[in-house]
Structures are given as structure tokens and as C-alpha cells.
Amino acid sequence: xxxxxxxxxxxxxxxxxxxxxxxxxxxxxxxxxxxxxxxxxxxxxxxxxxxxxxxxxxxxxxxxxxxxxxxxxxxxxxxxxxxxxxxxxxxxxxxxxxxxxxxxxxxxxxxxxxxxxxxxxxxxxxxxxxxxxxxxxxxxxxxxxxxxxxx
Length: 151
Fold this sequence. Notes:
Layout: H1 2-40, H2 52-56, E1 67-70, E2 76-85, E3 92-100, E4 103-104, E5 110-111, E6 120-122, H3 133-150
GO cellular component, one term: mitochondrion
GO molecular function: structural constituent of ribosome
């Protein structure tokens, strides 16, 4: 009888120990579950912005003749006239004509600063049709001369 009482007491002590360990486990998993749930409710990754060359690579002729501007500029853009690419295709130098409110602000080509900064965008409504105004005027002059000679 004494042996049965001892084994009964050892069994109850063991069950109490198991209960306390299970209680501690439940506390630790309850604390860890909001962290894993928080990871699922994170904001989606931001889209990586592009530098001038990463924008220009999808345009015909690497964007020469097209308008590009930094995202925080309003009313100012560059019409790309020359691009010097490095071997990797994501770095280099670029030149263009400054345009303010859609009109050229200067006739001279200017080296564009900040071409490697990740804030460039393509401006579709100001894109040229593939020829510069000086080329257009030269073709118009030649057609008017040929018409004058034919008459």
C-alpha cells in the first residue's frame, strides 16, 4: 500500500510538471504567432525606380529624340540627343535639350546631370515623331524647292 501511494504521488507530480511545460509552450507559441502573422500583413515591396538608362532601354534608339524628366520635376523635361553607354547598359552619360512647358528653353545640347539617380520617367505626350525640328524644316525646304522647280 505504501508503494502504491508513492507511485501515485510520483505520477501526479509528473502530470503537474507536464501541465506546466505545456502551459509555457502555449505562451511561447502565442507570442510567436503575431510576429509570423505580422510578416504576412507587411506592405508589398515597393517597385524599384529606374535611372535614365533603364527607362531609355525600352524606347526605340535608346530614347534619342524622346522626352524624359525626373519624377519630382513639373513642367521641365529633356529631349535626349546623345547617349554614351557603358558596357553594362545601365550606366553612362547623356545629353539633351531642356524643355520647359513643352517648349525648348535653349538650342544648345547640355549634359544631363543626375542620370544615375533612380527617379526618371518617360513623358509620352511630348515625344517627337522620330525627327528633330531642324530635320523637318530641311525636308520641308527641299520639297518646296522641288515643287517650285516642277512648276
